[in-house]
Design goal:
Elements: E1 6-12, H1 19-27, E2 34-40, H2 48-58, E3 62-66, H3 73-83, E4 88-91, E5 97-98, H4 102-113, E6 117-125, E7 131-136, E8 140-141, H5 143-147, E9 158-160, H6 161-164, H7 176-184, E10 191-202, H8 212-227, H9 231-252, E11 257-259
Parallel strand pairs: 1-2, 1-4, 2-3, 6-10, 7-11
Antiparallel strand pairs: 4-9, 5-10, 6-7, 6-9, 8-10
Helix pairs in contact: 8-9
Length: about 260
Amino acid sequence: MKTPIVSIIMPCYNSTAYIQEAVESVIAQTFSDWELIIVDDCSTDPKMASLLQTIASQDTRISFHTLEHNSGPGAARNLGIKMAKGRFIAFLDSDDYWYPHKLSEQLMFMQQYQFPFTCTYYEFCNATLDADHIVTLPSKLNYQDILKGFAVGLQGTMIDTHFFGKTYMPETYHAEDWQLWLQLLKKTDYLYVYPQICWKYRRTKTSTNSNKIGTAINVIKVYQKECNKSFISAFFMLLFKYIPHYIHRKRKMTNKFAHL
């Protein structure tokens, strides 16, 4: 099997309800030179193992692996990154969905302008993937922008390992993707945004951003780590940097089209 151009990393945990739909959205891509690496974070659902075997049998470009211990999505993604053979790394969670043009158009965007780090617009959806609103972003975002908490969306990002090498996420249970973006933006000036809707974020009862207190605590921890701040200083950053931007985003989300 030849080396794929894109490696897609998909962590999963008890994802029997949605993972088949997510995988099918990868198989349906108009760009075909990819590999999909699924990493199971020690699911407790007894149906998960047989389902992953069935999924892997659908396409030779799909493989699955299981962590030895339940370690969180950061650790699962890191195993996938370690195993990845492609030049470009992309991410898709097991309950979300890519439009068929996602890889082809985003890759063309990156290669045309030599952008090493990009993301796309996306739709914020309910459990049945009906869109509530569209999330758009400025044409480019720098380190200070990302510190505010722009809703970039992991599933729309793509990273060129020829520029960054293999960069791994902190193995935490929350905000590991946000911390990775900050790490990457210490090595390049901007995250560039492809201005088209390329994927759907499925909001479920278990979505990690549904716990507001937990989110606030995690934001403080990120500010402490990334900005070398005390708890008090990080708390004030939460109040005056993150929360104002969060409120602005939520106000925009009352419209069908949300420029974030």
